[in-house]
Give the backbone structure.
Amino acid sequence: MSPISKSTFKKFLEVMPFSKVVQKTKSTDRDQRLGPSQTSKNDKTYNFRADKGSMLSDGGQEVIIQADKNADNKDVRESAQKDSHRIVAKVAVDPAKDLQCDSIIEDALKSFEENN
């Protein structure tokens, strides 16, 4: 199994509508999918998914990014099939303040580099 490439992960970050993801943290239960919506087309196309993580003591919220078992990308798919709960990246957001989601991509890339 090859490691997941940073460029594959970066493509996901560039197309993921994080403003919607952050807003969904308010009404979604922990460990539930925030985006993209769960369809076979999205699972293949996006290669990754964002799930709601833990509530943080400062009122923020974790967003967990994991590989998808049905990903088009072979390396992503194999990683998910080996361990579908492995955290590829994790970011902290504040749905009350992070309306533009300015730092999410940068934070996610840093977390990806630390975890992969």
Observations:
- The radius of gyration is 13 Å.
- Residues 104-115 form the longest helix (12 residues).
- The CA atoms of residues 53 and 62 lie 5 Å apart.
- The chain has one domain: 6-115.
